[in-house]
């Protein structure tokens, strides 16, 4: 079957949705479509056909980006606001995950922190399920106390011992689940610390500021926000205010109109220092040194590219 939303009808020479189950395709596609002929179309019961009829010659949209509310009584279609709207797209962009640090070593720490956080989350879910089951078990054994009263005296003591053992086991399960949840919470703390360390390592802050930020959210020794954290925050705030004040002070001193310096006289060439290095002799070709050697040697020597006649010597006169 063709995957396109429409197929060609050889009887009426027109395109119609491929989900139609009848031959009278022009009744649904023509402008003269009547309300009483809808029952003749067997494919009107499917949502896919209704979507095809709604789009008609438009390209089909994916299932994840198109939603239709079909009212069977009125047989009408109302298109819901598409997911890929500007509002939804902006919301998805705002809810993106944090970008990894630019440094390679910091990215390794960040990935390790993510793995530790995922393991801690799974451990916390398991601990939560164990705690729920333990509470249910404890409630079950508490209800057994009412049944023991209706038992005979010879079986009542033995049943009481079984119930007490079950209650003790359920209490231990609750305590172990709470300990597991506490361990998972501390593991999440470790994961957050690892990722914060990776971010601070690539931030370029001073070591004092990095230590202050590391202690800020989690302080196990004293409390969530201890006095050390408050002192560090106050110091950072004072340093920031001082830096802003200094910038404003220096910027106010240099305010004013810029005056371009006037040009006075020509430029004077600076004396060149004598070079201590030996100058490399320039290369001279045979043409520049005095002509070519051959049968005309000495008759027309060359000097700087110009022809000069040879001087008369006693040997030449004879």
UniProtKB/TrEMBL annotation:
Residues 97-113 have a biased composition (Basic and acidic residues). It comes from the Eukaryota. Residues 269-288 have a biased composition (Polar residues). Residues 79-115, 260-318 are annotated as: Disordered. Gene3D superfamilies: 1.10.287.3160. This is Uncharacterized protein. It comes from Pleurodeles waltl (Iberian ribbed newt).
